[in-house]
């Protein structure tokens, strides 16, 4: 297993500061010691609106010179919208992202079932667009089938470009855990649609789905489908040079005081099934200390210690 950095961490959404351009970020990530980098499929990192073939070649050359693998293109698809024109627009966008991945020689395109969207408030990222879940004229079954139909159509383009779509077990509308996402992939029944299995906050419930037994079962039941994974959380380096995980405290996701994510069992079980892909670290929510948004320097620190933690865990497990 290898460790990648997901560039959403540096898009100027979750810290006080501007985004870091890829031309600066790629050598920075390599200097930190990461094995690969996963590109965020939106501005200002990897949007089809901005990257032509010349720009893609420059990114590939920069990654090659830094000995850094371009691991995945992480997209933000939303196929649960009741408005048919919105779903068609999302299909066009995903088709363009698949073409962009091909221009970058990236073989994995990560997709969501129904990404609710990131908004900006005072220049910072926020998650406040879950209103779509409350729309009264769409049932859960409606949303499920819209998503399934759209991913099936997208799989045809993935096949054309020899690309794998990695469906992330992240809601809405799929629930915490792996079961809904696994069921969706089985119903789609395409060799081009595999799984991005994450156990971090936002994907696995902190209260009931972090046990050894549950994570073991998740990895075993998804073993033939896992092609990609992310990890998140809070990590630090101790005074004696060790890397440890600290409880992550997220209102609505954890109890007060926070929770630990059971990466030890996850890595152990991934090794058992022979997974040799990437774990991509992401800073995917506001980085606060004493309820104050921190600067990019603190993101740098967190990104470095997260790498130290996961490299140590992979080596010892």
Explain what you see.
By secondary structure, the chain is α/β, with parallel strands linked by helices. The chain has one domain (2-316): TIM Barrel. It is built from 8 helices and 14 strands. It has helices at residues 22-32, 53-65, 84-103, 140-160, 179-188, 212-221, 263-272, 296-316; strands at 2-6, 36-40, 69-74, 108-111, 119-121, 124-126, 164-168, 193-196, 226-231, 234-237, 243-246, 278-281, 288-289, 292-293. It has an 8-stranded parallel barrel with strand order 1-2-3-4-7-8-9-12, surrounded by 6 helices. A two-stranded antiparallel ribbon has the order 5-6. Strand 8, helix 6 (212-221) and strand 9 form a beta-alpha-beta unit. Helix 3 (84-103) packs parallel to helix 4, helix 4 packs across helix 5 and helix 6 (212-221) runs parallel beside helix 7. The longest helix is centred in the middle third of the chain and has 21 residues, at 140-160.
Brief digest:
With 317 residues, the protein is of the alpha/beta class.
What's the topology here?
Elements (H helix, E strand, L loop, with lengths): L1 E5 L15 H11 L3 E5 L12 H13 L3 E6 L9 H20 L4 E4 L7 E3 L2 E3 L13 H21 L3 E5 L10 H10 L4 E4 L15 H10 L4 E6 L2 E4 L5 E4 L16 H10 L5 E4 L6 E2 L2 E2 L2 H21 L1
Parallel strand pairs: 1-2, 1-12, 2-3, 3-4, 4-7, 7-8, 8-9, 9-12
Antiparallel strand pairs: 5-6, 10-11, 13-14
Helix pairs in contact: 3-4, 4-5, 6-7
């Amino acid at each position: 297993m290898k460790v990648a950095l997901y560039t959403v961490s540096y898009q100027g959404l979750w810290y006080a500061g501007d985004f870091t351009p890829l031309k600066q970020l790629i050598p920075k990530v390599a200097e930190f010691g990461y094995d690969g980098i996963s590109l965020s499929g939106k501005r200002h990192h990897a949007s089809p609106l901005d990257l032509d073939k010349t720009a893609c070649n420059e990114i590939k050359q920069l990654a090659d010179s830094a000995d850094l693998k371009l691991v995945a293109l992480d997209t933000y698809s939303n196929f649960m919208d009741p408005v048919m024109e919105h779903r068609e627009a999302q299909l066009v966008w995903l088709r363009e992202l698949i073409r962009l991945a091909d221009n970058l020689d990236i073989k994995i395109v990560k997709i969501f079932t129904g990404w609710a969207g990131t908004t900006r408030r005072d220049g910072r990222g926020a998650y406040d667009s879950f209103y779509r879940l409350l729309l009264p004229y769409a049932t859960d079954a409606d949303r499920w089938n819209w998503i399934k139909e759209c991913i099936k159509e997208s799989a045809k383009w993935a096949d054309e470009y020899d690309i794998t779509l990695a469906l992330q077990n992240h809601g809405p509308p799929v629930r915490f855990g792996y079961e809904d996402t696994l069921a969706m992939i089985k119903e789609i029944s395409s060799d081009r649609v595999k799984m991005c299995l994450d156990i971090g906050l936002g994907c696995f419930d902190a209260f009931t789905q972090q046990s050894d037994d549950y994570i073991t079962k998740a990895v075993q039941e998804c073993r033939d489908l896992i092609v990609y994974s992310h990890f998140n959380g809070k990590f630090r380096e101790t005074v004696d040079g060790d890397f440890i995980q600290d409880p992550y405290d997220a209102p609505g996701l954890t109890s007060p005081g926070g929770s630990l994510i059971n990466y030890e069992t996850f890595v152990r079980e991934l090794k058992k099934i022979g997974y040799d892909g990437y774990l991509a670290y992401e800073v995917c929510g506001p980085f606060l200390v004493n309820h104050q948004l921190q600067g990019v320097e603190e993101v740098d620190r967190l990104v470095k210690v997260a790498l130290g933690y996961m490299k140590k865990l992979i080596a010892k497990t």
